[in-house]
Design a protein that fits this description.
CATH superfamily of the largest domain: Periplasmic binding protein-like II
Radius of gyration: 21 Å
Strand content: 15-25%
Number of domains: 3
Number of helices: 13
Structural class: alpha/beta
Helix content: 40-55%
Largest sheet: 7 strands, mixed
Order of helices and strands: HHHEEHEHHEHEEEHEHEEEHHHH
CATH class of the largest domain: Alpha Beta
Length: 309
């Protein structure tokens, strides 16, 4: 790389990270609230400064090059330092108030306790409340629009009018009774006469439709809205299910999880009304939510259950 002449901007790094996280210029522009051309121009300038191509652009999207991967790690560090500097300068007017988060139970159980703990240490005057009763993405959206929550965490796609930030993901898996013998050579496991127990939400319905298109055509014997109840029924040998991996973690002894033969990921995003997303207290919570080191410390993170795209 050539020598740096001092004209690099943090805004360029922010746009580069957004494109890498979102997988493309269009999604990054929607996240940052600017035009694709502005992002393209900023990244072209950044690549010129660094003397290397940072992104591989294809019709399917944009991914970091080898040089881009190295630059991405440093760019994230620089943006974290910027956030830390802003927090330090603003320490005289310490963050105070309450930020309410509406989310799915699995997020509230496995990830948010670590975030709340870190925020309590960094911002003692900031109180975070969690409503993990949401079972559908529309429940999260309704909570944001009704003012019952400042932040929401839900599965994509979300309403385009919301400001959103990328978050982590998990995979959908087959959940089977542990006693069921499996033929590892088969793409879809033989489940015999076991009935299919369907998770009653739009995300699971979309995954089931994809499974049927790939040759797996179960007929639901029953439908439940609670993934914990479904896992308990599977453990009793009353059927099998397709559930998000995080919702079955830690795996009960009575069940086993098997990867689906097709890729099926549940991608989350952090969302808020645009004006709310700009509030300092909300921005502080979002930074903690997107802190990958915090997520990596959780049991789900150590077990490799969650991923960052």
């Amino acid at each position: 790389m050539k020598d740096f002449d001092g004209s690099m901007k943090l805004s360029q790094l922010r746009m580069f990270v957004a494109v890498a996280d979102c997988g493309g210029f269009s999604a990054a522009a929607a996240q940052l609230g600017c035009t694709q051309s502005r992002i393209s121009h900023a990244i072209a300038e950044l690549e010129g400064e660094l003397g290397a191509a940072l992104l591989l652009r294809t019709r399917a999207g944009s991914t970091p090059t080898e040089a881009g991967q190295r630059a991405l790690a440093t760019a994230r560090q620089m943006l974290r330092l910027e956030a830390d500097l802003l927090d330090t300068v603003g320490a005289g007017s310490a963050l105070r108030g309450t930020v309410r988060i509406a989310c799915f139970r699995s997020i509230g159980t496995h990830l948010l306790p670590h975030v709340v703990e870190a925020l309590a240490q960094a911002h003692p005057g900031l109180h975070v409340e969690i409503d993990d009763s949401c079972e559908e993405r529309r429940d999260v959206t309704d909570a944001l629009r009704a003012g019952r929550a400042e932040l929401g965490i839900a599965q994509l796609p979300l309403d385009a009018s919301l400001a959103s930030r990328p978050y982590l993901s998990d995979d959908y898996v087959l959940v089977l009774p542990a006693a069921l013998p499996l033929d590892e050579a088969r793409g879809w496991p033989a489940v015999g006469a076991l009935p299919f127990i369907q998770l009653g939400c739009s995300g699971a319905a979309a995954i089931l439709a994809r499974c049927r298109a790939a040759g797996f055509a179960p007929e639901p014997g029953r439908s439940l809205a609670n993934d914990t109840s479904i896992a308990a029924m599977v453990g009793r040998g009353m059927g099998y299910a397709i559930l998000p991996r995080l919702s079955t973690f830690p795996e009960p002894a009575e069940v086993r999880t098997v990867p689906l033969p097709i890729p099926a990921r549940r991608q989350f995003a952090i969302a808020a009304l645009p004006d709310v997303m700009r509030q300092p207290a909300v921005r502080a919570v979002v930074r903690s939510l997107q802190d990958r080191t915090l997520a990596a410390r959780t049991q789900a993170g150590r077990a490799g259950i969650i991923a960052w795209d």
